[in-house]
Amino acid sequence: LPGDKQVTPIALYSEALRSRDIADAVVADKRLMQHIFARNWDAEANEWRQNAGPFDAVVNGAKRLLGVPVQAWHAPDSADVQRHLQKNMAIIESQKTNVTTIAVNDPDPEMAKRLLSVLNSAADNYLRKRELRRSTEYVAYLERKLTEVEIAEYRQSLVQALSSQERM
């Protein structure tokens, strides 16, 4: 829960960029997924494959020896996208200028732009839907309260709050 500090819209946006819902939007973009996880994409067979080398066998053997669980391989999913973004995306908030910079580390500038575009669209849609749902619930609450409250000053406050929410 937030403390005394007010949550800014850019902070909500930054957190949304790191969420599983936004990672799902990246997973839906097949071309982007094939680029991000090119090591596991077999273009000839048109399918995901495990790219296990001799080093992987040694690591898995050591894990088994130490009792560390070895997870079975799976095609890249939204959790893998989140890990990729955590390693390759930087969100830098400047305290002096109030400007936030979002940077993606990728050798292909076009794919980096595509990733940023997909992330931005998904985060924007997610936050809009979230705010619409919250406002709709609050409007319903205020309308219920208006039917219950009889004191004129309270009703006026409720009407003002309702008007504000309906504009949103």
Order of strands side by side in the largest beta sheet? 1-2
As residue ranges, the low-confidence spans are none
Give the count of helical stretches. 7
| Element-level helix/strand string | HHHEEHHEEHH
Biggest pleated sheet: 2 strands, antiparallel
Termini separation: 24 Å
Helix content: 55-70%
- Overall pLDDT confidence: 87
Judging from the principal axes of the Cα atoms, what is the shape? elongated
- Sheet-strand content, in percent, reads 5-15%
**Structural class by secondary-structure content:** mainly alpha
Nearest-angstrom radius of gyration? Answer: 23 Å
What's the count of strands?
Answer: 4
Q: Could you explain how this protein is built, in words?
A:
This protein is mostly helical and 168 residues long. The chain has helices spanning 9-17, 20-28, 30-36, 54-66, 78-88, 109-148, 152-167; strands at 41-42, 47-48, 89-93, 100-104. It has a two-stranded antiparallel sheet with strand order 1-2. The model has no long low-confidence stretch (mean pLDDT 87).
Give a topology summary:
Elements: H1 9-17, H2 20-28, H3 30-36, E1 41-42, E2 47-48, H4 54-66, H5 78-88, E3 89-93, E4 100-104, H6 109-148, H7 152-167
Helix pairs in contact: 1-6, 2-5, 2-6, 6-7
Please summarize what this structure is.
This protein has helices at 9-17, 20-28, 30-36, 54-66, 78-88, 109-148, 152-167, and strands at residues 41-42, 47-48, 89-93, 100-104. It is mostly helical and 168 residues long.
